[in-house]
User: Which sequence fits this backbone?
């Protein structure tokens, strides 16, 4: 199977660059398009009524994802920043933009053994999902 459009879900941590680099290495030989997405799930749930704070957080996230895109050494088709349910927002984006592979990271720390976004994604995404282990040194 040859993937045409790869979506990389990033949390904007330091390991996000590593994840984008791995997705780029996959996209190049396939001739696939590459897009990046960040969904701020936790912040949205806690502060849904604070419009000014949400707007400020979105601007920071947009700058951070733009920097990731610049460092990718590969053309990034779209960068998306949003808030809400991670699985809902990703599934909506996957369908709307004809994504056929989702790449996400999984932090290998104690907390992630119990609270993993990757587990949720595996059960809900309608496309192939590549989970990349990210070490927290």
Assistant:
């Amino acid at each position: 199977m040859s993937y045409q459009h790869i979506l990389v879900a990033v949390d904007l941590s330091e390991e996000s660059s590593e994840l984008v680099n791995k997705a780029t290495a996959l996209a190049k030989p396939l001739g696939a398009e590459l897009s990046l997405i960040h969904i701020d799930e936790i912040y949205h749930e806690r502060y849904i009524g604070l419009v000014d704070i949400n707007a400020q957080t979105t601007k920071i996230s947009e700058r951070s994802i733009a920097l990731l895109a610049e460092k990718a050494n590969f053309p990034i088709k779209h960068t998306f920043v949003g808030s809400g349910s991670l699985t809902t927002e990703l599934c909506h984006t996957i369908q709307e933009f004809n994504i056929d592979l989702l790449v996400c990271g999984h932090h290998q720390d104690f907390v992630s053994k119990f609270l993993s976004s990757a587990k949720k994604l595996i059960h809900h995404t309608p496309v192939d999902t590549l989970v990349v282990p990210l070490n927290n040194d």
Summary: The chain has one domain: 6-134.
